[in-house]
Amino acid sequence: MFPHPVRRPSGAPAALALAVGFVALLSPAPAAASLSCVVAIPFLAAGASTTVAGIAITATENSGVQGDTSDTYLHQSNARIRTVLTFSPGIETLRVVTRNHADAAGFERYTFAGSDGSGTVLTDSIEDLDTTRDYSSTTTPALSGPMTRLEIDYTFDTPIADFGRGSYLELRFAGACLDTTSQTVVGTVGSPVTATTAYVPTNFRGTVGYAITSGTLPAGLTLDPTSGVISGIPTATSSATVTIAATGSEAGVATTTVTFSITGTPSIAPAEQTVEGRRGRAIGPTTAYTASAFGGDVTYAVTAGTLPRGLTLDPATGVVSGTPRAHGSTTVTVTATGSTSGTDTATITFLIRPLPIASSEGPVPTAVPAGGGGVAPDGTLAPGPLAALALALGSARAAGRRSARSGARRA
Fold this sequence. Notes:
30 strands, mainly beta, 2 helices, six-stranded antiparallel β-sheet
């Protein structure tokens, strides 16, 4: 894979290493740059491409090999190595990190040449192989414009025969980024949500716009494409997560996520019910409640007022049933409670009338069939033994009244 190595003389004078070190000390080093949102350029074999922070990167040449990580280039000190990368759009910053590998320092050198397609924007070399250098418009030497091509040449003064020796090179740049990578919105259907925080973009070029690239916003909410702020009044529950992409009109792409927890207003229906009945007769059961937007299982209980004697409430459905043993009117409040969240109330009004008794002054049946009898649907006595008894009692009372009136006339 590499040319036949040339062995380093076993007795290389110590003065050589001292001289190389002295030259390194005299080499100008760029002033420290303040790089934010630094991203790595991964190792790319010749012809390979990738996209990092919206920058398309291609290795048009690379005779090095991958080092100890996915973003490390290993240049072994037994052959001249050349790596050429292109960037679209160009990058305005560069960070170079070198690490000595297996004590090869003093015999290696990296030379960097950057261009923007029309001229040179960066020229520098590094002989101190355990260092970090940043290049930007404010460093010396400077990266004087968007760099679209970077040529890296790795050379050495005295080749080393050991294939395991050499240097690690890491390349990075300040990529486009946002000040936050995620936000959470908690709200209730029908109520305005607290708007998300506007994003602060860094290292973008041109005007930054925002758009949903994955997922769907809860109904009723909208995204401001100029700030990335999400606001509105949700009209449906949602537990969605959306991805928002920020894109610079000239360069730079970064993404962030927003997760929603939109719950409905807990409610039960029907909200009101009225029950009419008579004492001693079973009522028709009330309507079972339909519960919405509660957390967990819902249970029901009377929390205000008292059910008529003889009636009971099913705690699982809220249905009231039974036979009232007293007459009167009353209203009770039923409260629904979710096992983990949510409460709501409803009312039931009861109108229980007394059981009617046939009046002695009123009409009585003129014929009583044998057997049968009981209470008719209208509350009167139907033909039967009870009706016969009532007929006899009514007849006796009527005869008594006629006798009393006749005696009064004779007197």
